[in-house]
Design goal:
The protein has ten helices and eleven strands. It is α/β, with parallel strands linked by helices. Strands 6-7-8-5-11-9-10 form a seven-stranded mixed beta sheet, with helices on both faces. The longest helix has 21 residues, at about 85-105.
């Protein structure tokens, strides 16, 4: 289906920058048409009048259809975004589960009757918001931690281990399930490499990586570990969206907390420590959407997803 003005967008495979497809280009007119169609459905009460169990079955069926084409869609997602094929499969399976879960909730949403005495009828009924717009982030291919903090007593060991793990990662196309896959575009490759160089210029130490791979095709950069990063550096304060990890040293719990909370971003945080009191103290004060505590190395590895290095900030305490 073409857009209202007939434009097309070329989609490139970031693994080799070959032409993958051409898709219709949407404009404001297309958005208006979609919103108007959605509003007509809401106004008609077609879904509201439907039996809740039937609505639920519709949503569950979406999940079934998604799962039935999972292999095909995962390959398209990998070729389009550059991510690992295993990650794409996981995401599609997760999406199917969301449809199933929410479909199962459709006939379990209840209202409430409030008794106010004779002559009164008072009740509350949940009502859908109606038409909503959603901006979906596509940053999952960024499969490394953005920031990591380590106590001075273990700092050198942490940095050395990070470098060893990073240098052992396989770099290549997502369809081959490589550890580090291409960035989404040549422009993003330039941006990430620029950030790595900015960090070095500001005084960070490039333990490994920092430059693009010398390949004829594809948007590949060496996974990078920048050590000795300080609070005010741009690589610590700004989102990079690429395989660049920064490492900062701290002496006290209060200093670690100040560093972790000292940016405008805080999607997720993980605290690594053998001291439960310190773990609880830190997680209660971290300004992050999620604060995680790995129970143990073994349980962490068993429960880890292929995209495990996805946290905004990690903190290694004594």
């Amino acid at each position: 289906m073409d857009g209202a003005e007939g434009g097309r967008i070329k989609v490139l495979n970031p693994a080799d920058n070959s032409l993958l497809a051409e898709v219709a280009q949407a404009t404001g007119k297309d958005v208006d048409a979609v919103v108007d169609a959605a509003r007509r459905v809401v106004s008609s009460r077609a879904l509201t009048a439907m039996r809740p169990m039937d609505r639920g079955r519709m949503v569950i069926e979406m999940g079934r259809m998604l799962r039935a084409r999972k292999e095909e869609l995962a390959q398209l997602l990998t070729l389009d975004a550059g991510k690992r094929i295993s990650e794409a499969l996981d995401e599609l399976e997760g999406a199917a589960k969301y449809f199933e879960y929410n479909g199962g909730m459709a006939d379990k949403i209840e209202g409430r009757y409030i008794p106010l005495g004779d002559g009164y009828a008072d009740y509350a009924v949940p009502v859908p918001y109606g038409v909503t717009a959603h901006i979906i982030p596509l940053n999952f291919p960024n499969n490394m931690i953005a920031r990591s903090l380590a106590h001075a007593d273990v700092y050198d060991e942490v940095v050395a281990r990070m470098a060893a793990v990073t240098e052992a990662l396989k770099i290549g196309p997502g369809i081959e399930d490589s550890d580090i896959t291409p960035l989404i575009s040549a422009q993003q490759l330039d941006r990430v490499e620029s950030y790595a160089q900015i960090g070095i210029q500001e005084g960070a130490r490039a333990v490994t990586g920092g430059t693009r791979l010398a390949m004829e095709k594809g948007n590949y950069i060496r996974p990078t570990v920048l050590a000795d990063v300080t609070q005010e550096m741009r690589v610590n304060q700004e989102e990079i969206f690429g395989p660049v990890m920064t490492v900062s040293k701290f002496e006290t719990m209060e200093e670690a907390l100040a560093i972790a909370n000292g940016t405008d971003y805080g999607l997720s945080a993980t605290v690594f420590t053998n001291d439960l009191d310190k773990a609880l103290w830190m997680t209660e004060r971290l300004e992050a959407g999620q604060a995680q505590l790995p129970v143990s190395a073994s349980s962490q590895s068993q429960n880890a997803r292929p995209l495990g290095w996805r946290c905004r900030c990690d903190t290694a305490l004594r």
